[in-house]
Amino acid sequence: MTRFMCVQCGTQFAETPPLPLSCPICEDERQYVRWSGQEWTTFEELRATHRNVFTEEGGLTGIGIEPDFAIGQRALVIPTGDGAILWDCVSLVTEEAVQRIRRMGGLKAIAISHPHFYSAHAEWSEAFGGVPVYLHEDDRSWVMNPHGAIRFWSGETLEIAPGFTLIRTGGHFEGSTVLHHAADVDGRGALFVGDTLSVLQDRRHVSFMRSYPNHIPLNRSAIERIAAALAPFPFERIFGTSAQRSILQGGKAAVARSVERYLVAIRD
């Protein structure tokens, strides 16, 4: 049996003998089925045509895929002092990526912001001996490959390593999550957001959407909930979905003014 992978969103499905009938993640209004229709590949086929690429981002290592594949996000390797956390996920893991992370002290956990970035979480976990994959319980129904390494968590926060806290903000998805690193930049903190908060082109603001490709905004209550979830946590830096989507200073103020600007824009 084969773990098929959706070409559009990069999600790997559980082992099945035939092709899956559809990709529920792409059929949801927060994603889309491309004009040419549903298409499938496999991890093995992807590894034959693509490679991992690495970026340096404020002292962290980003891992992406080249040529571009699926949504195009990159993962981040975040050292904890006792192994690293892989934040968000991509659809390909190569031996080069595994060896790089092992030279950094190995991987202790994977944490993913939301279902669009679940991708090949099982392959990444297995490459490091079955390390846990932390997903929020509210997004359980979007897991297409219910692997044994998954650790569903519930509630509003979860510390997965000393000083590393998952925060459920909701918004983009019900279980949308960010990761807070308390000790980053001498205790001023960092926030890893995926596109729960989307870092914008000026890198002074973030924005918020229910659906990015279909341009569906969030309402006031969702934005206020995100703001309230982040309020207790200090952070200087914000890391978004790619190497260019980062705010390296003044992150807390950037979120505050972005919330205010957004609420003005959607006012009746």
Q: How would you sum up this structure, described in words?
A:
The chain has a single domain, classed as Ribonuclease Z/Hydroxyacylglutathione hydrolase-like (Metallo-beta-lactamase, Chain A, 4-Layer Sandwich), CATH 3.60.15. The strands form five sheets. A seven-stranded mixed β-sheet has the order 4-5-6-7-8-9-10. β4 (51-57) and β5 (60-66) form a beta hairpin. The model has no long low-confidence stretch (mean pLDDT 96). By secondary structure, the protein is an alpha+beta fold. The protein is built from seven helices and 20 strands. Helices cover 21% and strands 30% of the residues. The protein has helices spanning 24-27, 43-49, 95-103, 121-127, 184-187, 220-230, 251-265; strands at 2-6, 12-16, 40-42, 51-57, 60-66, 75-79, 84-87, 107-111, 133-136, 150-153, 157-161, 164-168, 177-181, 190-192, 198-199, 206-207, 209-211, 216-217, 237-239, 246-247.
Rg value: 18 Å
Overall mean pLDDT: 96
- CATH class placement: Alpha Beta
* Estimated share of beta-strand residues: 25-35%
Strand elements, count: 20
The CATH architecture term is: 4-Layer Sandwich
Unreliable runs: none
Distance linking N and C termini: 53 Å
How many helix segments? 7
The best one-word shape is globular
With strands numbered from the N-terminus, the spatial order across the biggest sheet is 4-5-6-7-8-9-10
Topology pattern, helix = H, strand = E = EEHEHEEEEHEHEEEEEHEEEEEHEEH
Largest sheet: 7 strands, mixed
CATH homologous superfamily title: Ribonuclease Z/Hydroxyacylglutathione hydrolase-like
Helix-and-strand structural type: alpha+beta
Indicate how many domains the architecture comprises.
Answer: 1
In which range does the helix fraction lie?
Answer: 10-25%
User: What fold name stands as the CATH topology?
Assistant: Metallo-beta-lactamase, Chain A
